[in-house]
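FAQ

Q: What does a record look like?
A: Structure on top, sequence underneath. For example:
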């Protein structure tokens, strides 16, 4: 039983990471195509594979693309690609990461990353959370209905 849960958690983590890697790679390749960079073929697998390295892997793939932009198109294209890489791997990745890990790991809403909580707050879900009616996936969960859950009582 415990091994099945561990296997399920690891599998969910890699599913979420794959979703995030595909999102980041699609944006990096789109940026490279817009800047008309050469070697877009190698940029794609390098960007995708490096996203599996926790915390800084996406930045390695972004650095690879920035180096190609600097070498092929000069300083301006390199700086534009650097700005886009930072934007993609910070601002744009956070909401995708929160949703991907939240769905694939079945996380409690309070344990999701801050980007997801902020998104829910902006959309008005903070009212339900404030009066104790937390929902997961639009349904009242058994743990929340019984007063248990992540924080307990």
């Amino acid at each position: 039983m415990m091994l099945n849960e561990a296997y399920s958690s690891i599998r969910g983590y890699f599913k979420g990471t794959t979703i995030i890697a595909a999102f980041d790679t699609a944006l990096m390749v789109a940026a490279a195509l817009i800047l008309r960079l050469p070697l877009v073929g190698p940029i794609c697998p390098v960007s995708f594979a490096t996203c599996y390295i926790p915390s800084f892997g996406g930045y390695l793939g972004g650095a690879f693309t920035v180096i190609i932009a600097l070498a092929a198109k000069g300083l301006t294209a390199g700086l534009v690609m650097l700005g886009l890489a930072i934007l993609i791997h910070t601002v744009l990745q956070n909401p995708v990461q929160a949703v991907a890990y939240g769905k694939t790991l079945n996380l409690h809403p309070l344990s999701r990353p801050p980007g997801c909580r902020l998104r829910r707050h902006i959309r008005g879900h903070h009212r339900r959370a404030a009066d104790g009616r937390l929902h997961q996936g639009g349904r009242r969960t058994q743990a929340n209905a019984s007063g248990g859950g992540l924080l307990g009582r």
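Q: Is there anything notable about this one?
A: Helices lie at 2-34, 40-50, 57-73, 75-104, 114-122, 126-130, 142-145.
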